[in-house]
Write the structure tokens for this entry.
Amino acid sequence: MSPSRSRNQTELDEQDYGPSRTQQRREALAVLALATQLVELPPSRLARLELPEDVLEEIANVRRISSHIARKRQLGFLAKKMRRHDEAVFDSVRAELGENRERQRQETAAMHRLETLRERLLEDDEAAATLIAEHPSVDRQHLRSLVRQARSERAANKPPRAYREIFQLLKELQQDEGEGDEETGD
């Protein structure tokens, strides 16, 4: 023990005062972020979550408010109500929202891959041959016809009907592939 510190001061330092002010602020901001997510959810998804009745009522109140500042203040009040409940009440909600966010990321990534493949089909004839080799069940003639139509639509600045059909065809191929993987247990 240093000579400048008294014994009582050292004992006070060793006492547990609970979470620091910074930690309390982080937790409050996390609850506010969860409240914001809940307000933005569609009513059908919100109904599936197990939330306390007073929180559901307050979410409805926040949704009715259109003024930016008033809505922000009401969101803060919702977060305050949520903090009054035990953390365990919202654990399942956080888990559900986290799973959905990950699923949305995966779906978005899959859509981007399909869009990239579609662009490669329009730019390179070898991409069509590769796709046909990977998916022997695809209608080759129909695929090549759609690619030609999409190229001509793009050149003539027409609505991209065939371009969209190619995307739908690729999406169906991906779904068929996914179902095949589930059936074989891969």
